[in-house]
Amino acid sequence: GEPVRARSARVSRNRILAASAVRAGRSSYGFRLRDDPSGLRIEEDGGGKVLALFRQSKYEPKVRSPLNINLIRDVSVGSFTLELKMLSTTKDYGHRDMCLFFGHQGPSRFYYVHIANVSDAHANSIFIVDDKPRVSIAKTRTEGTKWDDNWHTVKLVRDVDKGTIEVFYDDNPAPIMTAVDHRFKWGRIGV
Q1: What residues form DSSP beta bridges with 183?
Q2: pTM, whole model, 2 decimals?
Q3: What are phi and psi of 142, to 5 degrees?
Q4: What whole-number distance in Å separates Cα of residue 126 and Cα of residue 11?
Q5: What is the pLDDT of residues 53-100, one digit of tens each?
Q6: Could you report the per-residue pLDDT of 179-189, keeping only the tens digit for each?
Q7: How far apart are CA 166 and CA 174, in angstroms?
Q8: Residue 38 phi/psi, 5° resolution?
Q9: What are phi and psi of 121, to 5 degrees?
Q10: 95 to 3, 90, 187: CA distances (angstroms)
Q11: Nearest 5°: phi and psi at 20?
Q12: Do residues 99 and 66 lie in contact, with contact meaning Cβ atoms separated by under 8 Å?
């Protein structure tokens, strides 16, 4: 499987939404592994709690898309900024990766960001799943985003009025990938 860990989550649009999402992210009840919760658990790491995906989900999507989708319960957003500390604990290879999900309206209707070591047709891009297999919608992207054995800050910024999607990695002021799409104006978010 693809073990991943998220140390903290912060969602901001306004104070009420931010407080609700942070509380959900710190609770073992805040995230739910879609259709197969057995691969998700809260672990101790460096004196804090982390959300860990420790085994591959048995979920089988109707259309080609990721298998491990962890959505924050009871939080649906339009425009937002999601900032996470993330660690990939899988072996180092071209598709060593992490994913962020947003605009999630159902199992076959959502966006996701796939941040991977190497860019290709199915990696290191912004994708849409719209009742058919994933399609890259990235306008710009790097040739790859290097994961290692350290924690990294990932920030996803979505503006539904403009249709913009931007992804930032660590302290780089320039986005590592961008897209413009107006299809899903709201939805759940997760990792």
Answers
A1: none
A2: 0.81
A3: -80, 170
A4: 19
A5: 777 777 677 887 777 788 887 888 999 999 988 888 888 888 888 899
A6: 999 999 999 99
A7: 9
A8: -70, -15
A9: -60, -20
A10: 13, 10, 27
A11: -65, -45
A12: yes
Rounded to whole angstroms, how far apart are CA atoms 46 and 51?
13
Whether 130 contacts 109, CB under 8 Å: yes
Count of helices and strands (H, E) across the chain: 1, 15
| Nearest Cα to Cα of residue 66 among 78, 75, 84, 53 | 53
User: What amino acid is encoded at 149 in this protein?
Assistant: D
138-141/135-136 β-pairing: unpaired
Q: How far is CA 150 from CA 44, 87, 91, in A?
A: 16, 6, 13
Separation CA 110–CA 98 (nearest Å): 16
For residue 54, count other CB atoms closer than 10 A to its CB.
14
Contact call for residues 142 and 88 (beta carbons, < 8 A) = no
Rounded CA separation 167/181 (Å): 14
Place of tokens 């403009």: 162
CA–CA separation, 123 vs 146, rounded Å?
12
- Tell me the two tokens of residue 127: 């994708």
Q: Enter the tokens of residue 132.
A: 């058919």
Type of residue at 180: V
